[in-house]
Amino acid sequence: MESKKFILQEKDIPTAWYNIVADMKTKPLPPLNPKTKEPLKAEDLYPLFAKGLVEQELNQTDAWIEIPEEVRDMYKLWRPTPLVRAYGLEKALDTPAHIYFKNESVSPVGSHKLNSSIPQAYYCKKEGVTNVTTETGAGQWGCAMALAAKHFGLELAVYMVKVSYNQKPYRRSIMQTFGAEVIASPSMSTRAGRDIITAHPNYQGSLGTAISEAVELAMQTPNCKYVLGSVLNHVMLHQTVIGLEAEKQMEMAGEYPDVLIACFGGGSNFSGIAFPFLRHKINEGRQIRVVAAEPASCPKLTRGQFQYDFGDESGYTPLLPMFTLGHNFAPANIHAGGLRYHGAGSIVSQLKKDGLMEAVDIQQLETFKAAVLFAQAEGIVPAPESSHAIAAAIREAEQAKLEGKPRTILFNLSGHGLIDMAAYDQYLAGDLTNYEVTDAEVARNLAELEKIIK
Amino acid sequence: MESKKFILQEKDIPTAWYNIVADMKTKPLPPLNPKTKEPLKAEDLYPLFAKGLVEQELNQTDAWIEIPEEVRDMYKLWRPTPLVRAYGLEKALDTPAHIYFKNESVSPVGSHKLNSSIPQAYYCKKEGVTNVTTETGAGQWGCAMALAAKHFGLELAVYMVKVSYNQKPYRRSIMQTFGAEVIASPSMSTRAGRDIITAHPNYQGSLGTAISEAVELAMQTPNCKYVLGSVLNHVMLHQTVIGLEAEKQMEMAGEYPDVLIACFGGGSNFSGIAFPFLRHKINEGRQIRVVAAEPASCPKLTRGQFQYDFGDESGYTPLLPMFTLGHNFAPANIHAGGLRYHGAGSIVSQLKKDGLMEAVDIQQLETFKAAVLFAQAEGIVPAPESSHAIAAAIREAEQAKLEGKPRTILFNLSGHGLIDMAAYDQYLAGDLTNYEVTDAEVARNLAELEKIIK
Q: How far apart are CA A382 and CA A370, in angstroms?
């Protein structure tokens, strides 16, 4: 068999992140102050975020932003990650398509999230911050942030969405092993948490609620900043190391993807692999289909609306331009906890609006079927989130077979599922279900949103 | 910072395994037929093991055995693995020692065990075998075997030691996701299991008992072979890819280990990293200290006796020459399930007897303290088994500091602990304990053994 993996050396770790905003013909709309509806200035964001990160967040001119040496050194913990030709999956599907995946699951916490937690902790530390707060869904971001916080000597409190706190206790333990404090969200420790517990006593939480709690705690704690694992521009920026490496590796393989796929929650792993490839589409008109795979139970890109909305459930954040289901949308308790978010980041939302990318929504059972097939064919148990990308890639590969036309598919394996095995147990026992979202539910939520935002 | 990782390409995956027996001045004693006490012939082993594996087991002449192309192709799933300079750990210990570790935890099942499960499944398949049985402790071997069996189209039944079956349910799920059947051992499905349940109703199992059950099922199933994850010569052989890669990588780093450390259960990861280095000690007299780190609660190398014993609890296997505590030794329920085995493989036992290596025993609390320090310093949560190697490496690094003398330490990180987080929870909560083995207990067990073997 030809080579399975395309391996880079440490010297090939990118030296700069790629800032797609600099190249976008239509820039994303600015974040707004909810009260004045005026575009936010950097100063407005300084209380909540480290200055170095705010500068990256608002940078619309520099296409390349240098990666600090201390960050690049930490990337060497596990980067560069392999690009893998999925011969086993191709064979199992009997498809003429060539399938590649970028294996971000090899990071020591099992996902791509470290790519951004490290620079976020670095800039906080550099500016003399001592404490940070954050939220986490399935726990991938929380584990990554806990590792980075420990390395840079920051105290960390993590609000973990309650349904995942119970579904995935090992991720809680990993955060604690790295020295972080973990609180199930909604909690009684914040006003945001108490309010929602009072209104909905059995609410199992969502990323939107956990963000509210983390933001509230950050605002009330001295010398403390808030850090976020997705949605924001600077997070997308940090993640571009994925796609920049993948570009070199596809060159080693002698192919270029016809279609590029990643799962979609707030957009971090999607942007990370997609933006470097999209720059050639934007700048040179190079053909590539870019597909975000989102859960059918949380379909903001496929069925949401493009408009200003809050990033969190309680309305603490600025108003962001996004494809959204409304910040009050309560996603079903699917196991892909990292995808249970009502909105999409501003950059991705603009790219989608401008037709530079597309989206598909996938039901839970299809993702687990794809996950088990992938595990048996490639030997890697994928995270439930990443399984959305796998399912979308399988759809493409089956289409290629149907049409008898080869094509090159690249998807991002954003994480492994070794700590999500309770979900696999339920799937194998036939105890998992799909979740339908009705048009009426979406319309009702968006109507409510309009009243709140106005 | 200088390079952290030393990365090889796929072409650097070894093309042959290293058979240390060919180079040993004193060969290991032969396995014996328990009834006749005569040395076993190949034919005696054919009913239980694939012929290709039996040939390797008994080969005392060829120092190099070619790795079949199909096996090498599968190794490309994750090999070569990185060698890492543990700058973080060095800094945390403020030691003049240079510490390196070979990171076998990057395999898709999280440990080194795939190195042998793949060739074992390959030879079974090649000889027309359809079903295989095996045992597993913490589940690392079972997961690796399940992946390999699925790839080569074999049906697999795994007896998993009961204490681990309950402590580590995710590993059970991983095996099931790969399509294997998993049974908690001791079970009612075999005579060996029924006997021990009858005698000790609450017995939580051991590797020795699980081996008995797996062997019994293999003997009663048509076209079925038994496969083993440690102890036997051919398993050690397969694992030498670890040390062969590490040799090249230490060369890249421009250093040679003064001391080489691995944890010790039956000997598979230890032999894998140690044998290639020991060949220079045997053949060229090159200085190196080689240290096996075993649990204080199962101290066969440090406190056991060198003599013939059964490999399993019920006495189904041939008699093997080994350092042993007696096959009836019931190890305490430590979380390092993979190290809960009464004996050591024949080759390692001979090397120990000949003074070519040494051993240390380490208590559970020291291993978890080392594990948390390592996790926080290097970002990788280690398996409880591997933490024995880390603890031993830390002792060496602290000794170097005390003496003010630098030295180069290499240890094998045989696996990650992301699925062992319940153990970390208990440790962080102060709920774990040490386990003492009294001299009287060892003496009583060995006296009993002498009666049985005679």
A: 9
